[in-house]
Amino acid sequence: MISHKTASSSGRSAKKSKRSGRRSPLATVSLIVVGLLTTGGAYALFTSTATADTNTASSTSQSQVNEGKKLFAANCATCHGMAASGSSAGPSLIGVGSAAVDFQVGTGRMPLAADGPQAEQKPVQFTNSQTQAMAAYIASLGTGPSEPASKYLKADGNAAKGAELFRINCAMCHNVAGAGGALTEGKFAPSLKGVSSKHIYEAMLTGPQNMPVFNDLNIKPQEKADIITYLKYLEKNPSPGGFQLGDLGPVSEGLFIWIFGLGAIVAVTVWLTARSN
């Protein structure tokens, strides 16, 4: 009997110790709250760092933002709205970043001259300082891609790697030589010859018109610099094979052979026939 009592008392004490070792439901909730706070704080820190990286391409003063706001109200608000939130005539510009403004205004595509399949390049209507002011104003409205760092615009990267990246990502529209090409419904991919390094980079970053966006996850900044290097190499080193025929590829070359080559054969045949008579 004594041993049985001892055994049952030891079992009860083991049960009590087991119960006392259980975690309280409040402790579980506390751990979840601590985990959420830690994760949220880390995410907020990362987001603020990324935002700072996005918008620190150049330090902008409030006076520059104010100047840009005035220029925007006088020249762009008709289509994009006074608050740049968009209208039936133009999309919202909140969150597009300074790079999009610098590309569109810096290439003369904006302000838009007339409705059409896409905005075409035309003479620039604003000075560089005015363009920068409008870019600063739009950047102040929301986070977006900023203008590229100058180290990526020197065209001193790897031209061979850039050529490979260009063939994979860009040549189907812009032609392997960057000569441009026709798209559907009256749209087109423009020639990249003579385009500044900055505007080429900004086009990849923002995806204007029908172009897809190549952000830094798709094509890294150094890879964008390599593509620019390849395009600038083409400008400095024209085709060594004779007439370029617009760099439009086998269609123009085949047409040239068909018209002039076959035409020459017919002309020679007629000349020989006339001589024999």
UniProtKB/TrEMBL annotation:
It is found in: Cell membrane. Its EC number is 7.1.1.8. Residues 13-22 have a biased composition (Basic residues). Pfam families: Cytochrom_C (PF00034), Cytochrome_CBB3 (PF13442). InterPro entries: bc1_cytC-su (IPR009152), Cyt_c-like_dom (IPR009056), Cyt_c-like_dom_sf (IPR036909), Cytochrome_c_Oxidase_Subunit (IPR050597). It catalyses: a quinol + 2 Fe(III)-[cytochrome c](out) = a quinone + 2 Fe(II)-[cytochrome c](out) + 2 H(+)(out). Residues 1-22 are annotated as: Disordered. The chain crosses the membrane at residues 255-274. Residues 63-142, 157-235 form the Cytochrome c domain. Keywords: Cell membrane, Electron transport, Heme, Iron, Membrane, Metal-binding, Repeat, Respiratory chain, Translocase, Transmembrane, Transmembrane helix, Transport. Its main location: membrane. The cytochrome bc1 complex is composed of a cytochrome b (QcrB), the Rieske iron-sulfur protein (QcrA) and a diheme cytochrome c (QcrC) subunit. This is Cytochrome bc1 complex cytochrome c subunit. It comes from Frondihabitans sucicola.
